[in-house]
Amino acid sequence: MIKVIGYVFLGLLCNSAQATAGASDDYGLNRWERVVELRGTWQFTLGDDEAWAEPDFDDRDWDQMYVPGRWEDEGYPGYDGYAWYRTTFDLPRGRYRKLVLRAGRIDDVDEVYINGHFVGRSGGMPPHYKTAYHEWREYTIPMDYLNPNGENVIAIRVFDERIEGGILEGQVGIYDDRDAPFMEADLTGPWMFRTGAHPSWAGEKTRDMEYVMVPGYWEGQGFRNLDGFATYHRSVTIPRELRGEDLVLSLGKIDDLDEVYFNGVLIGRTGQMQPYPDVRGDEWQVQRFYPIPENAVKYGGRNALTVVVFDGMIDGGMHEGPVGIITRNEHERLASKAGSVWDRIRRFFNDG
Q1: How does residue 338 score in pLDDT terms, banded at 50, 70 and 90?
Q2: pLDDT tens-digit series, residues 213-264
Q3: How far is CA 102 from the centre of its chain?
Q4: Alpha-carbon separation of residue 167 from 25, 61, 68, 74, 256 (angstroms)
Q5: Are the C-beta atoms of 114 and 145 separated by less than 8 Å?
Q6: What is the pLDDT of residues 100-134, one digit of tens each?
Q7: Cα angle at 323 between 183 and 169, to 5 degrees?
Q8: Is the pTM value of this prediction over 0.85?
Q9: If we measure between CA atoms, which residue out of 74, 140, 151 comes closest to residue 115?
Q10: Per-residue pLDDT reduced to its tens digit, 60-79
């Protein structure tokens, strides 16, 4: 039987953290190490054009806008509609756990691009408008998207429906997440995706696959009301110097059930998917950690990773990190940290 290395964070703990996050952008400061300060003057223009996301676009004739701040206070009173922000930064040298763009609170909807690559969205752009004015933005930046030896470009597309608009408030910057594991291979970012599942899809990409961002619910990425099976796929290179290491695949949290294939070999599952899916209700809270058999790895070459997901209802997909390949030592560090959380919760109730 394939064993799942996993643990569950209590819902009350998650709800507490989310409630704090919604109240202030200052929560969890000990968790974050600021790498790049982004508060200051950005390039800014009204209107909407996809070309403005490209890193080589010339924005020198745009206006300037201080971030964070309402654009109504910076010369655009009463404006509702689309606008774009752009800025550049150099990434300091270093080894990072997980880089996150913390963009504060944006009114109402935003899409974020790093060097022309889409990294995240909050809310829904017209014609499927949905405000996200109350949400604090945090977008994981795949290391593959960054230029470590020169200039990087951030472009943020904003739509404001009414009243105030823009990047309103927050400690805007790029931060290293100290709580994240060191990744031997970071799998955050775009994965190939299609609805449905079939045994022949394990181990290789199939035709007619689209791209979705991982982690993230698939409902917010064009697959509304999708309940049932879907298949994720991507390739990953395992360096030769990792031969002999005990490697663990971290897939974060998945809603609801999953089966995982590495080069066509089933290496783990959470929940019962065969012969019929059986959702018990708490699988979406389980952190997925699957040991990778050494004989399944192509060291120095491309490896195929396929994740088959079944969602019973409401949200679905690979929705929360960390997502990547880590060593067994790093996994044990995470597991012991989770244990300390359990201990604190148990002591809280015992003391009460």
Answers
A1: low
A2: 899 899 878 898 899 999 999 999 999 999 999 999 999 999 999 999 999 9
A3: 12
A4: 13, 21, 5, 12, 34
A5: yes
A6: 999 999 999 999 999 999 988 888 899 989 899 99
A7: 95
A8: no
A9: 151
A10: 999 999 999 999 999 999 99
Which amino acid makes up residue 196? Answer: G
H/E run at residue 149: none
**What does the buried/exposed string (b/e) look like for 169-191 if buried means 16 or more CB atoms within 10 Å of the residue's CB?**
bbbbbbbbbeebbbbbbbbbbbb
User: Strand 173-177 to strand 32-37: parallel, antiparallel, or no bridges (unpaired)?
Assistant: antiparallel
3-state secondary structure of 155: strand
Contact 91, 75 (CB under 8 A): no
The owner of tokens 């929360």 is 320
Residue 121's pLDDT is what? 87
Q: Which residue shows structure tokens 């998650």?
A: 14
Calpha distance 10→336 (Å, rounded): 16
Instruction: Report d(CA 218, CA 235) in Å as an integer.
Output: 20
Q: Is 180 left (phi over 0), alpha (psi -120 to 50) or beta?
A: beta
Residue 28's closest CA among 100, 131, 115, 118?
A: 100
**pLDDT for residue 346:** 42
